[in-house]
Amino acid sequence: MTHHAITRPRRGLGLLEVLLGLFIAGLVVAAAVPLYDESAVRRGSNEMVLEMSLIQASLSRIYHDRTTYDGVNTQVLARSKLLPAKWSHDGATITNPFHGSVVVYPGSSDDGAKYYAVFNNIPVKACRYLSALDLGPNILRVEVDGSYITPDMTPGQKMSLCTDGMTNHFISWTVF
């Protein structure tokens, strides 16, 4: 009498198949994380450009009937309700997309500035992206971490002002 082995259908996955699936999933995640980081920096940087534009428009609206911006400060702008609520939660401070403070203060008649807008706590990648942008003719001067950007600087020279050693940079826009 011959005994034939009864074949049973396989249930579930084998160890090798599970490990292969985990390896492929790990590769997908490893590739997606840097892309997400870059995307988040670009999104935040674009929001900062929008925020600077809205600050300019809001202050022009508040001070439209005056010849100077005397008395302008962060609180005046925050209380104006002209900025989106996500940037000014308490009516006294303004935050940027990277959760740093935005400080606005009056300009100096010595340099022809109407006001200054300083954005703090900017990551290095966003600092490099923003420092290379031209934000239009109303910007008198841009300062990155204490160094002024000059008109003759190349984009590479502008971006080099945002050093890797610092994790939190600031950019100051002087508006005239």
UniProtKB/TrEMBL annotation:
An example Gene Ontology CC term for this record: pilus
Gene3D superfamilies registered for this protein in UniProt: TcpA-like pilin
One Pfam family from the record: Bundlin
Protein name according to UniProt: Uncharacterized protein
Segments crossing the lipid bilayer: 12-36
InterPro entries according to UniProt: Bundlin, Pilin-like
Superkingdom, taxonomy of origin: Bacteria
Alphabetic keyword roster: Membrane, Transmembrane, Transmembrane helix
